[in-house]
């Protein structure tokens, strides 16, 4: 009897050790803190659903931009200092522009996955030690916050516009002057007139209170704001098939459900911005119909220049599948 009990206890202990060895606690580096809506909607939900679907086998610890600056995060994840990255494709243009092209692709998560685009992007990042996990749309694009309304030129002629690399080509096409500033300086720069406006996703004015220092927001909006989630390739390869499948299942579901959350949020955000005092200023009649194509052209230019043959293939496939305006 004693031998039987000892054998049972030993078997149970081995099972526990095995389960413990398979369980994985991942670290995810985010380019934004919780003030940016995409973090609670996508990262927060990913962490929660992953733990639930894996029965606690997979857990994620999130680290924000205070750990590593947003534009310097790709290499630490590729090098294995962190397991995952939640970011925007424009934040690592110095290394590759591949994921940036997603902002010029039609906002349809199912059509995107069926097109073969994700396989191209994944292959590109795998050559850099990373695995594409998911692409998460904010169901809205970009605009400019301005101190003064659009004038007779119908564009941004002569205005100093705070813009990251995402918008450089478009600002120049609209005859504006690019001013490079970190997001933390947008408020004070608008307040003091250092810049005449700022380019940003349509979400942000409320969280960062930019409506206090700007009076107008441009319409129509342009492009589609996308966030990408990547994983260190060695980490990915070290997971079991079941763990990999669970991660991809959660990501695919969240691409659809999270986008719907953002579609609802966008309607509320737009109303809130106008209620806070931001007035809509329209691009001129000769400019307004072109802003989306203008933005897409600038995006694809950077993708081709910074991702080489892979970027060319990405653009070609998006055109063939009818998923881009340029």
UniProtKB/TrEMBL annotation:
Keyword Iron-sulfur: no
InterPro entries per the UniProt record, alphabetical: DctP_fam, TRAP_DctP_sf
Protein's recorded name: C4-dicarboxylate ABC transporter substrate-binding protein
Assigned keywords, A-Z: Signal
Organism: Neopusillimonas maritima
GO biological process terms, semicolon-separated: transmembrane transport
Keyword Signal attributed: yes
PANTHER family named in the record: EXTRACYTOPLASMIC SOLUTE RECEPTOR PROTEIN, PTHR33376
Signal peptide: 1-23
